[in-house]
Specification:
Length: 215
């Protein structure tokens, strides 16, 4: 399948062997993302396009790859970020340190549609919670933002202080003293909270570089 370069650049796409898509297992709930969408081809036939991402990487080389299955058969695969050409556009896939940050069908007219998660996956369970209990979902979302914000407020000043003490930096711009100094166990607790918050945000594909900085 040819790789299509537009404004969003991907890695080289390789042809798949047609192997069947393996069904989602309960123990993969946090280690695998499985998202699908139905796309109608120019011949009027609708097919299910599924993106499979194993976040722990492949056993052969540890690289994290996106695999594109069409009606349950492997069509192509790529390392990240991945761009797969499909009828009426492309599917773009990207990750960060907490999971998927992008998995969209971008149509030829520029409109985008997020691929739907497998109901058994962590993303699917989170989406079901939002659908069935929107109030609880909003509270969890706010708590996640708060955890990330606290992590950012604690980690960034300390990081800046450490960098400012490097001799060339200190000679150029001076040193910075962080207003926040926490004991090790509290730093670890805040960091763990930021990771939890960022992971929850990744389940809703809301995480960004800020989450990685905060954690």
């Amino acid at each position: 399948m040819a790789l299509r370069f537009t404004g969003w650049r991907g890695r080289r796409v390789r042809a798949g062997s047609g192997e069947p898509l393996r069904r989602f297992r309960w123990w993969q709930v946090f280690s695998r993302s499985l998202r699908s969408t139905t796309i109608t081809g120019p011949d009027g036939v609708a097919s299910v396009y599924t993106v499979d991402v194993r976040h722990g990487g492949d056993a052969s080389d540890g690289a994290v790859r996106a695999r594109l299955f069409v009606d349950g058969a492997l069509r192509s695969y790529s390392t990240m970020p991945a761009v797969f050409t499909v009828p009426d556009g492309r599917i773009e896939v990207a990750i960060n340190g907490f999971g998927l940050k992008r998995c969209h069908h971008v149509r030829a007219d520029g409109t985008e549609r997020l691929l739907a998660p497998d109901p058994a996956s962590a993303e699917g369970r989170r989406a079901r919670l939002h659908r069935d209990h929107p109030g609880v979902s909003r509270v969890i979302g706010l708590v996640s933002i708060a955890l990330v914000a606290v992590g950012l407020g604690v980690s960034v000043p300390q990081l800046v202080e450490t960098i400012s003490q490097i001799p060339p930096v200190a000679d150029s711009v001076g040193t910075f003293t962080s207003p926040v100094h926490l004991p090790l166990h509290l730093n670890l607790l805040v960091g763990a909270g930021a990771v939890v918050g960022s992971t929850e945000r990744a389940l809703r594909m809301r995480s960004s570089w800020i989450d990685e900085l905060a954690s």
